[in-house]
Amino acid sequence: MLKGKHIILGVTGSIAAYKSAVLCRLLVSAGAEVKVVMTNLAKQFITPLTMATVSKNPILVDFFNPENGEWNSHVKLGEWADLYLIAPASANTMAKMAAGVADNLLLTTYLSARCPVAVAPAMDLDMYAHVATQRNMEQLKQDGVHIIEPGSGFLASGLIGKGRMAEPQDIVEAVEAIFASETTNHQKKKSLEGKRFLVTAGATIEPIDPVRFISNHSSGKMGYAVAESLAKRGAEVVLVSGRTALEKPQGVECVDVLSAEEMFEACVERFSKMDGAVMCAAVADYTPQVVAQDKIKKNDDDMSIALKRTRDIAAHLGQHKREGQVLVGFAMETENEEQNATGKLAKKNLDFIVMNSLRKEGAGFRGDTNIVSLIDSHEKVDLPLMSKADVAERIVDKIESFL
Ligand code: CTP
User: Which pLDDT belongs to residue 302?
Assistant: First the structure.
């Protein structure tokens, strides 16, 4: 598991630094290549000579070598690494990491690292339990840092409690688990290789005359997030997009349309070649019966515009869906949410529907978050407030369960 892996081992000023030598030796024996970065204080606890000998690499402490001015590039180091493991991680270093402070090489390397980062905290029990330390660790977790929990027992202070750095062997096992989960994530990301999906997004525009139109508030964010998430997992994606102000997602074929009719044509033409479709667009249900050739001039009377029904794209695809194709719809409701959504699920022959209520704060148009329920013919799963990107991931997880 660790063979050939590039690991940066960060050592900070803590009495537990004496265990870093054993940890380094275990990582090297397991086949990893290890480069050690130390803080100045860490050198007081374990010598650079010891760490250089066990890691088989020179130790990095300063931004440059004072003898010859050679630059220790934290950027290159960050790019080189498959994992940045900071063990021991002192309360001080974790606080700085949480705040983005970059006043030594160990911290600038953290900010430059593109790889997973893990910390093994080590400190006295009161420092560990302090609300500030707990808050910083919570922040690090939210930032995606893996925390390798300290153990309980005798501490250097003579007190007994939680704060003792995890044993080197346990840290190695945690590191292996991180690499294993990264591999699973990578496989998950490519799980839709060879599959093709159609996604609709944004608002349609129904012209009244050369100047005016009927449209709606859809930003397109949810549909673009779904297209991106499908593409990230290796699917070929065609995004049929109405009006949005968004940048086109990477690795996705985009077809720009304006009216509901244009969107209908673009989707119907492509659907048979697809493994599924996700209908995120806010499609106008009505369009002007006649589009005036010239700009309509006002007069003193009130006016009305005669509208006719547009064709329902989702319902049409539902009627023509073949075995194995997955069709997903959205329902944005303001009342009787569940009843309306399940009605649409059946009427449009969808496999599942993503229901959101405009009554909930954090859900709906324009924002970056959503609160949705995923409803199929068997169950309704209520998701909490999430970013639209995370909602997209959950939708794509559910699509995978239908394939
Ligand atoms: N939809 C579509 N084509 C249309 C209208 C809607 O493909 N002409 C899709 C939407 O993209 C969405 C789902 O159908 O996935 C639900 O759309 P919505 O407008 O909420 O439902 P309607 O069936 O139009 O019902 P109502 O207007 O009564 O809410």
Answer: 95
